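About this split. The held-out portion is used to measure sequence recovery: a designer receives only the structure tokens and must propose an amino acid at every position. Recovery is the fraction of positions where the proposal matches the reference. Here is one held-out target exactly as it appears in the evaluation file.
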């Protein structure tokens, strides 16, 4: 222990924050699962209470990012890493084609609630796949290279993906309605 005093002021939490706190001490798998779920819940919290129009707003020009586009993107990322690459399901990618690789962010003509339902379904598939894996050392195959990739690495990459987009969501939400918080 050090003599350094703990800070008295912290980033405020959102009034509606019901996210479970990841464990401060725990095994690797328990920690990775909890942190990834915390990031998923954080993204949903940053989107809560906004109208479909606000969720589709590109509020930080010149960026084309919107919360609606990000939920579509994250649904596709969940499917890509867990279902397509890790377990090898032969299913189509979401909101992507080689002819239109940015349609997740660019084509916001779909129903926002449907996009959230698809994302929640993909998150649930990912949780089930993770729970069914005997070990974080199990591997899938990277489509781009044909090389193996472990569930551990996928979990770490997904945490980084959500952390990056939660930062984007912070900026978008503050620009949309002034809301801030951890």
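Reference sequence for scoring:
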């Amino acid at each position: 222990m050090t003599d350094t005093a703990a800070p008295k002021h912290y980033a405020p939490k959102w009034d509606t924050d019901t996210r479970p706190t990841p464990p401060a001490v725990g095994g690797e798998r328990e920690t990775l699962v909890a942190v990834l779920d915390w990031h998923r819940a954080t993204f949903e919290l940053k989107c809560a209470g906004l109208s479909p129009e606000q969720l589709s707003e590109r509020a930080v020009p010149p960026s084309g990012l919107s919360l609606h586009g990000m939920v579509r993107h994250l649904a596709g990322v969940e499917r890509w890493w867990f279902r397509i690459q890790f377990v090898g399901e032969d299913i189509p990618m979401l909101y992507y084609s080689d002819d239109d690789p940015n349609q997740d962010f660019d084509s916001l003509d779909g129903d926002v609630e449907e996009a959230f339902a698809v994302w929640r379904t993909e998150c649930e598939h990912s949780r089930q796949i993770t729970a069914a894996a005997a070990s974080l050392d199990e591997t899938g195959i990277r489509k781009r290279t044909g090389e193996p990739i472990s569930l551990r690495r996928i979990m770490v990459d997904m945490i980084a993906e959500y952390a990056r987009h939660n930062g984007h969501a912070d900026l978008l939400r503050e620009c949309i309605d002034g809301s801030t918080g951890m």
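Annotator remark: The chain has a mean pLDDT of 92.
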